[in-house]
Structures are given as C-alpha cells and as structure tokens.
Amino acid sequence: MDARLDYFADPTAGKVLKYFMSAGKALKDSPLPGATQELVALRVSQINGCAVCIDMHTKEAAAAGESSVRLHLVAAWREATVFTEAERAALELAEKGTRIADGAGGVSDEVWAYAAKHYDKEQLAALVILISFMNTANRLNIIAQQPAGDYEPGRLH
Hints:
mainly alpha, AhpD-like, 0% strand
C-alpha cells in the first residue's frame, strides 16, 4: 500500500511538519515520564485506529524497555493490574481527551483531578499537549493512509 500523500515532498506540508515534529521532540524532552508518554501515545492511536502510530509507539516503547505484557494490555488498561495509578490517570485523561466527539461530555472535573493528583502542572501541560499532538498525528496518517509495519525504533526521534 502506498500513502496518498508524501507530506515531506510537498513544500507547504514539509515546512509545517518540520515545526510539528520539533514540537514532538520538545514533548519527548518534557518532565512527563517517557514510559507514560509512550503508553498515552499508543492508547490514543489505538482509539483512533492509526496503524502507523501504533506500530511506531509499540516499537519505541519496547526499545526503551517496556514489557510486552504492558504493551498488550494498554487497550484494556482498566482491567489490567500492571499500570501504576499515575499511568491510569494519564490513560483516562488520554481517552476522555480523544473521545470528545463520542458525546461523553469531554474531560470531567473528576478525570482532571485524578490526573492532577499524580502530575505537576508542567507534566500536566505536557500530557495535554501530547494527547492533542497524537490526535493530530493520527489524523495526518489516517487521512493520507500511511502504511504501517516497517517502522524502526529511533527513526523519528
């Protein structure tokens, strides 16, 4: 399968994506724990059905030492016992922030308070931006039908 668009070959898209990717790098360097970042990126991508992002974040997390058990259980994190309370708070915020259009009422005060209990303001800001960033990346990839399966860890980081 070939992608519908080669974003980096298009002058306008290439310029925009250069800045977009630098925003992603800034998120990687934030105080939000790396494992949490990968779990959140993976969960948002699962919800949105973005195969290329699922491929990337599964492989990046594994390369960083994440266990296959935790990676396999991200989709069912509520029933899994392998996630910390802080990770659960991040995953719940990610789900609520991604499923805005599902009529779920957005992010409730309770969900926000749960996340704020585990993360300081700088980490919360990074978490919110990461959730938004991943939703944008998912849409860019899904609309252009970017193929998945051949990502190699470290390629974009």
